[in-house]
Amino acid sequence: MQSAERRVNETLRLLPITSLFVLATILAGCNAERRKSDAELGLNPQQIAGRKIYDNYCDRCHEPYSTSGKQGPPLKGVFTKPYLPLSGLPANDERVGEIIRFGRSKMPGFGQALSDKQVRDLLVYMHTL
Ligand code: HEC
């Protein structure tokens, strides 16, 4: 009888800690951005093809929808300003296409991995960021 009582007491003592942990987990879950579908983003077929390439080749180093940095600078709004934030190069298809093909300092080039059409699709998608 006494040990059962002790167990109840023990449980009650841990309750605030447990609920705090549960609450923290829920809050962390809410904080993580849910990935939007292609339809929610209103992407056309070419942009969808470009998004797949982005996910495969660029996403691990560049955030597309947030301003937090990964290994490389975020590419959110990359074509909305006249110049690229880091290099100061003009933000146009020619310069960005060259960066994709040839790379830049710590960024590898993707000219071998991607066809001209894939680079074009990728650029078209990046205009939606
Ligand atoms: C291994 C990590 C990595 C991958 C993968 C990568 N990048 Fe980068 N990227 C970087 C780094 C680091 C820089 C900054 C280079 C510098 O110092 O100028 C950069 C720079 C850039 C810039 C120029 C930004 C500016 O403000 O000057 C663009 C545009 C860019 N990357 C696009 C892409 C695209 C598109 C892809 C996918 C095809 C890609 N990157 C894949 C790491 C990466």
Quick summary:
The protein has helices at 2-31, 45-57, 93-102, 116-126.
Can you walk through the features of this model?
By secondary structure, the chain is mainly α. The chain has 2 domains: 1-32; 45-126, Cytochrome c-like domain (Cytochrome Bc1 Complex, Chain D, domain 2). It is 50% helix and 0% strand. The chain has 4 helices and no strands. Helix 2 packs across helix 4 (116-126). The radius of gyration is 23 Å and the shape is elongated. The termini are far apart. Bound molecules: heme C (HEC).
Topology:
Blueprint: H1 2-31, H2 45-57, H3 93-102, H4 116-126
Helix pairs in contact: 2-4
The chain binds heme C (HEC).
Heme C binds next to α3.
Protein structure class: mainly alpha
Total helices: the number is: 4
CATH superfamily of the largest domain: Cytochrome c-like domain
Q: Ions, cofactors, ligands: which are bound?
A: heme C
What is the name of the CATH topology of the largest domain? Cytochrome Bc1 Complex, Chain D, domain 2
| Quaternary structure of the protein | single chain
Question: According to CATH, what is the class of the largest domain?
Answer: Mainly Alpha
What count of domains describes the coordinates? 2
CATH architecture label name of the largest domain:
Orthogonal Bundle
Straight-line N-to-C gap: 65 Å
What is the H/E order? HHHH
Helical content band: 40-55%
List segments where confidence is low: pLDDT < 50 over at least 5 consecutive residues.
none
Give the overall shape, derived from the CA principal axes: elongated
* Number of DSSP E strands: 0
Nearest-integer average pLDDT? 88
Query: Strand share of the residues?
Result: under 5%
- Rg over CA atoms: 23 Å
